Write the structure tokens for this entry.
Amino acid sequence: MNIDQFRILAVSLSSRGFGYAVMEGNNRLVGYGNKVINKNKNARVLVHIEKVITRYRPNLLALQDVNAKGTHRDPRIKELNRKIITLMKKRKLKTAKLSGTDLRIMLLGNPKGTKHEMAESLAKRFLDELASRLPPKRNFYNSEDVRMDIFDAVALAVVFQQEKRAEESSPTTVFAN
């Protein structure tokens, strides 16, 4: 399938719920949003993710690699990540995992970049869709703004799409005997 027809659903899990982004074609942001969930979080996140999948019919689901070196995630999030991957297998939907370091390198060229720097970069790239949703830079004593889940999901989708495009455009090596 060619990249112009390929649809990616990226999901970013957080302590409050999740953010999602749907991309297709040449950097076309088809949909995005976030859902804050207060009770029975894992079960309800799974239900909402299934609704997003039904609505957008992606070819692939991109998630953050919660087990990557240097990643510190709550055990509940790790369990939810495993349940989502199991759900995707049942639906015969491919899953890709990307580390936070990979996201920062691909988007910022800096493995030590911040989530806010990534969000600013994405808000500039998707000016009409995301600029008005960019939260202010947080202070160390504030909780992260729930809108950051959207930017985390868009980052996953953009980086996966870049990797897929590079894969498709790389020349095939032919070996002669």
